[in-house]
Write a structure and sequence with these properties.
The chain is 73% helix and 0% strand. By secondary structure, it is an all-alpha fold. This is ZFYVE26.
Length: 290
């Protein structure tokens, strides 16, 4: 893997740099393919991992260490091949995004990575934390979310990453930069692949609402985001958070949610929305007498 660690990654400051070095990924890929191909060894026997006997394994490891030969199973090599193949796709994708002068998405993604205080660019060759950053970077880089989502989903599945955490974090970052159409595209992608469970979708949207709740300039977008929530209880909470107490009240009384109306009355008192407080108290009084 020297092609990768020494020549592909070292000193790279952006995926433009990595794209210029993509030939090293192809070389590493070809080396591993040759290792897997018996015809490449000719009359020389390919070294194989030893059996389960500890004594044999210990002697084999000593021999391999002395000779400088790294022996891996076909499964291990196959996994390396898949990792390199995905990284080649990632490099091409992010390079295209960075070279697209019509898009500011790549700049947002680059800033996100810079703020993560990582010492190196995120690639498939790092830890799961690094790969998580990589998926976030991919999802934030393009103006067309579906291809970014498809690539990111492959990485999530291949590396067993926490998809819900990643998508929630990405949606929050999109909200910070007013990329509301991208949030909707991301939600649509999740639904199409069968990952659009109510709680997951509501957690993502809730994270976005937290970003815009206190910004009066984003009141309309906050309203639009609330409409995307699946569960009434989450919608009511979001309306309260955004100070839209009349909307919260109407939804709560329609569903006969006494505790929510009580919460809305308390919020109305704190926010000085006397009219809403009065109608809440009136409804609660009527409810008590029925």
């Amino acid at each position: 893997m020297t092609c990768i660690t020494c020549f592909y990654q070292r000193g790279a400051e952006s995926y433009i740099d990595l794209a210029e070095r993509i030939s090293f990924l192809y070389k590493a890929h070809n080396h591993l393919q040759s290792y897997m191909d018996p015809s490449q060894w000719g009359s020389v026997s390919r070294p194989l991992p030893q059996g389960p006997k500890s004594g044999q394994r210990e002697r084999s490891n000593e021999s391999n260490t002395d000779s400088g030969v790294l022996i891996q199973t076909e499964e291990q090599v196959g996994k390396h091949l898949k990792t390199i193949s995905i990284q080649i796709e990632v490099t091409k994708f992010l390079h295209h995004c960075l070279k697209n002068t019509d898009s500011n998405a790549a700049a947002i993604a680059t800033k996100y990575i810079a703020n993560s205080k990582s010492s190196t660019l995120p690639t498939m060759f790092g830890t799961n934390k690094t790969r998580t950053d990589l998926v976030n970077m991919i999802l934030l880089s393009g103006n067309d979310i579906p291809p970014a989502f498809e690539l990111g989903l492959r990485i999530i599945k291949e590396c067993n990453l926490g998809g819900q955490v990643i998508y929630t974090h990405t949606a929050r970052e999109m909200a910070k930069h007013q990329r509301y159409d991208h949030i909707r595209q991301l939600l649509d992608c999740l639904v199409k692949v069968g990952m659009g469970e109510d709680d997951m979708i509501d957690e993502m949207i809730g994270a976005c609402i937290l970003v815009v709740a206190d910004n009066p300039n984003e009141a309309k977008e906050a309203e639009n985001l609330i409409k995307l929530l699946r569960k009434d209880s989450h919608k009511i909470n979001a309306y309260i958070l955004c100070g839209k107490l009349r909307s919260a009240y109407l939804m709560a009384v329609k569903a006969e949610r006494v505790e929510d109306v009580q919460r809305i009355a308390g919020a109305a008192q704190r926010m000085g929305q006397t009219a809403v407080k009065n109608i809440c108290n009136k409804w609660l009084e009527q409810k008590k007498n029925t």
